[in-house]
Amino acid sequence: MNEYLRVEPAKGYAFPVAKAGIPLIGAAAFITAVFALLSLTLPALLAMAAAMFICYFFRDPDRLVPNISDAVVSPADGKVIKIEKLERSRFYEGPSLKISVFMSIFNVHVNRIPFTGKVTKISYFPGKFFSANLDKASSDNEHNAVFLETEAGQRICFVQIAGLVARRIICNIHENESVQRGQRFGLICFGSRLDVYLPPTFEVQVGLGDRVCAGTSLLGKLAS
Predict the structure, then answer these.
(1) Are 211 and 79 in contact (CB under 8 A)?
(2) Start-to-end CA span in the chain (Å)
(3) Cα(127)–Cα(141) distance, rounded to whole angstroms?
(4) Please, which residues have CB within 8 angstroms of residue 113's CB and are 6 or more apart in sequence?
(5) CATH fold of the domain at 65-221
(6) Which residue is catalytic, options 96, 100, 192, 217?
(7) CA dihedral 135, 138, 139, 140 (to 10 degrees)
(8) Can you tell me whether residue 163 is helix, strand or coil?
């Protein structure tokens, strides 16, 4: 049985939400109150439902991270929609293995670091907004690529990709920053995708269609 670690302090309240959602939740709650004070029952109920959904979307539960030295964890909650070997990629020098996780609007959208290391580069591209489950979303959509190097000198790249509805990518880490596996680093608003580029010798431990949780589910292991 795997042991698990807490890499960040627990938030300490029953329903934690991401900071990025607080202004939207506050605005929806304010609109609900205005409609209620004006005795506009139906608009008030609709605004309250919107506020509840925004709270649900921006939920940010604490996670325990597997204590396995060579394990790479999923950076996102969602469904594994692609596992493929690539001879070349704009996000990885030389051959790589790519794993894509699609997040629907019902998944937790807080993203987490897949492996401990140092951020060597962050590259943002203001692209288009195709549906995130399409192949062309990887290259054409708005995206933010984080390049990481492990202590052993292995390279990993994980790419936040905006989707058809998603119009905001948030990344809270910086170049030359040391990060830990399972650490929160950002989110994408309202449906999106995460692509992970790994060394070609990576030992995959997930399959197409598998449901994964950020910071907790193993994608596989890095070869030593």
Answers:
(1) yes
(2) 22
(3) 5
(4) 75, 148, 173, 179, 180, 181, 182, 183, 185
(5) Glucose Permease (Domain IIA) (2.70.70)
(6) 192
(7) 80
(8) coil
The full set of domain ranges for the chain reads 19-57, 65-221
Q: What is the DSSP string of 59-127?
A: B-----EE--TTEEE-SSSEEEEEEEEES-BTTBSSSEEEEEEEE-TTS--EEE-SSSEEEEEEEEE--
The yes-or-no answer on residue 104 being catalytic is no
Count of other CB atoms within 10 angstroms of residue 128: 12
For the whole prediction, is pTM greater than 0.90?
no
> pLDDT (tens digit, 9 = 90+) per residue, 62-99?
999 998 989 999 999 999 999 999 999 889 999 999 99
DSSP letter assigned to residue 178: E
Of the candidates 200, 100, 125, 218, which has an alpha carbon nearest to the alpha carbon of residue 155?
Answer: 200
Give the residue among 218, 223, 193 at the shortest CA–CA distance from 207: 218
* DSSP three-state, residue 17: strand
Give me the pLDDT at residue 156, please.
Answer: 97
